[in-house]
Amino acid sequence: MNDQIKRGVVYNKVVNGRRFVVTRNGFDVSPEERKFYKNLARDWYCGYMQILPSDKEYALLRDDEDDLNGFYESDHIGDIYGIGGITFMGKFKIWPYEGYYLGFDTAHYFSRDVTEEEVIKATLDMEKGLEK
Questions:
Q1: CA distance 116 to 22
Q2: pLDDT in tens, the chain (132 residues)
Q3: DSSP states of 53-91 as a string?
C-alpha cells in the first residue's frame, strides 16, 4: 500500500468570526488494495474549529500547543465534542490558515462511515461547547 496521504479541504468558512475547516483524507490506494485493506484504506474526514484569543481555551492552546494531555486534563474538554473525540490542537502545519485550532478525525477502526454533511455539522457544533 502506498503510504502517501491525499488531503483536500471540502469546507472552509468563517462563521461568527471563527474559521471552521473540514478536510477529506485518505491513502492513495488502488481499487484492488482498497478491497483488501477495507477499513484501513477508506477515506476519512477531519473537522477543525478556530480558537479565538477571546476564548478561555486560547491560553491553554497557546501554552500546551501539540500536547493534548494538558487539554484533556483541564476542565475545558468536557463540553467541546467532535466525532470520536478531540484529536488535534494547535496550529496547522500544512494548511495556510492562521491561529489555533481544535479538531477531530473520523479515522477510527470499526466505526461507521460518516457523510461530509455530518462532519460539517459536527464541526460547527463544536462552538456550542466553548466556555462562556
A1: 8
A2: 455 667 889 999 999 999 999 999 887 777 777 666 665 557 889 999 999 999 888 877 766 655 555 555 544 455 788 888 888 888 888 888 888 899 999 987 767 789 999 999 999 999 998 876
A3: TTSTHHHHHHHSTT-HHHHHTSSGGGG---TT---EEE-
* CA 55 to mean position of chain CA atoms: 18
The CA-CA-CA angle for residues 10, 110, 125, to 5°, reads 40
Backbone angles phi, psi at 36, to 5 degrees: -70, -45
* CB burial of residue 100 (10 Å; 0-12, 13-18, 19+): buried
Q: Which residue, 130, 99, 104, is CA-closest to 14?
A: 99
Place of cell 481555551: 57
CB 57 within 8 A of CB 78: no
Task: Report domain extents, the chain.
Answer: 5-129
Distance CA 119, CA 132 (A): 24
DSSP 8-state assignment for residue 55? S
